Amino acid sequence: MSHKFAVRQLVRLKQPSISDKRVTGGSTYEVVRLMPEDQTGEPAYRIRSGDSERAVRESEIASA
């Protein structure tokens, strides 16, 4: 499976948690790195918003 999103593309979390809203003040992130597929074969990403960076699966994000 190939990656749907590209480095520097803006994405949003499909279902941000309460802590995400408090820490980042929003749910728009920039893709900073493409990561290998996880155990299920789903592509993963490193995304960043401000000082906050996290790893997510492709199913957790959508185009902004």
What this model shows, in words?
The chain is mainly beta and 64 residues long. The protein has one domain. The chain has one helix at residues 18-24; strands at 10-13, 28-35, 44-49, 52-57, 61-63. Strands 4-3-2-1-5 form a 5-stranded antiparallel β-sheet, with no helix packed on it. The longest helix has 7 residues, at 18-24. The radius of gyration is 11 Å and the shape is globular. The two termini are 22 Å apart. The model has no long low-confidence stretch (mean pLDDT 87).
Secondary structure: elements and pairs:
Layout: E1 10-13, H1 18-24, E2 28-35, E3 44-49, E4 52-57, E5 61-63
Antiparallel strand pairs: 1-2, 1-5, 2-3, 3-4
General form: globular
- Percent helix: 10-25%
Largest sheet: 5 strands, antiparallel
Low-pLDDT stretches: none
Q: If you compute it from the alpha carbons, what radius of gyration comes out, rounded to the nearest whole angstrom?
A: 11 Å
Please provide the count of β strands. 5
Strand content: 35-45%
Count structural domains. 1
